[in-house]
Amino acid sequence: MSLHAAPRGRRAAIVATLVLVGFLVGFGFGSEGTTSRSLSRAISSPTAVPRTALSYLRYRPQTPRVPYDVALEPYDYYAPAPPLKTTDIDGYYIRIVRLEEVGGPHWGLPIHCRRCPAYRVDPGVETLLLYRGRYWLEHQMSTWRAVGHYVVRRDRVSFFNDPNCSRIRGTYRWSKVATSLTFRVLEDVCPYEDERADDLTFSPWTRVRPCLSGIQYWWPALIGCKGGESGVRF
C-alpha cells in the first residue's frame, strides 16, 4: 500500500516516523559508521588534548632559585664566619609540629609579640636550611626566624652568630639515620629558658629536596638548586 493510499491518520504517523529517523541519522545515531566518524572527529579535535603526567609536575616556584650570595651572609657578631665549604649535615630539613604536642589551642597557638621568647616551639611547619656553615630556621605559622653560622667537627656541631644569642655558642651532638637528622644538646646557655636547645632538639628533622619536589616557598631562598651553583646536590 502506497503512502497516498493510506488513511490520512496513518499517513501522518508514517511521515512523523520518517522525520524522526532522518533526525537521528543526521546526528550520528543511525549507523555504526556514522557514529564512528563522529567520535573520530571529536577525538581528533584540537580542543581535546589529553593531559600527561609530566604536565602536572610543571610548576612556577615563588621562592627564587639562586646561588649563594653575600647578601644572604649572616652577620658575624661573635666569631668570624666559617669557610664556605660543604659539611656532613648540609641540606634542607622540615618538621611538622602538631598542635597537641605544644599544649593544644589554648597554649600552643603562636602569639605575635615583640617580647615573646625566641625559639618558642610553634605548631605547624618549621624549616631548617643548613648550607656550608650557614643556617636559616623559620617557624612558618608565627613567621619567627633565626639565622647564623655553624661548624661541624665529626659528630658535633656548634651554632653561633645568632642575633638572638649573639655572644653565645651552642654545641650539640648530631646523628643522621636515612633522611632523619637529630640534635642532642651538649652545652647551650642561650637565654629564654633554654628555648633554643628545646627547639633544635624537640623532634627529628627530615631532609627533603625542594629543588625537585615542587615546594613553592622556602625562606630565604632555594640555594644551590639547578641553575644555581654547580656541583651542589640538594
Key terms:
about 230 residues; alpha+beta; 2 domains; two-stranded parallel sheet; globular
**Domain tally:** 2
Question: Major beta sheet, specifics?
Answer: 8 strands, antiparallel, barrel
Q: What is the percent of helical residues?
A: 10-25%
Low-confidence stretches: 23-36, 38-46, 227-232
Strand content: 25-35%
Number of helices: 6
Shape: globular
Radius of gyration using CA atoms only: 33 Å
Termini separation: 87 Å
List strands and helices in order, with pairings.
Blueprint: H1 8-26, H2 32-43, H3 53-57, E1 65-66, E2 91-97, H4 104-108, E3 124-131, E4 134-139, E5 144-153, E6 156-160, E7 170-177, E8 180-187, H5 191-201, E9 205-208, H6 210-213, E10 222-223
Parallel strand pairs: 1-10
Antiparallel strand pairs: 2-3, 2-9, 3-4, 4-5, 5-6, 6-7, 7-8, 8-9
Describe this structure in words.
This protein is of the alpha+beta class and 234 residues long. The chain folds into two domains: 8-43, no CATH class; 66-223, no CATH class. It is 24% helix and 26% strand. The protein is built from six helices and ten strands; from the N terminus they run αααββαββββββαβαβ. It has helices at residues 8-26, 32-43, 53-57, 104-108, 191-201, 210-213; strands at 65-66, 91-97, 124-131, 134-139, 144-153, 156-160, 170-177, 180-187, 205-208, 222-223. An eight-stranded antiparallel β-barrel has the order 2-3-4-5-6-7-8-9. Strands 1-10 form a two-stranded parallel ribbon. A hairpin with a 2-residue loop joins strand 5 and strand 6. The chain is globular and about 45 Å long. Residues 23-36, 38-46 and 227-232 have low confidence and may be disordered.
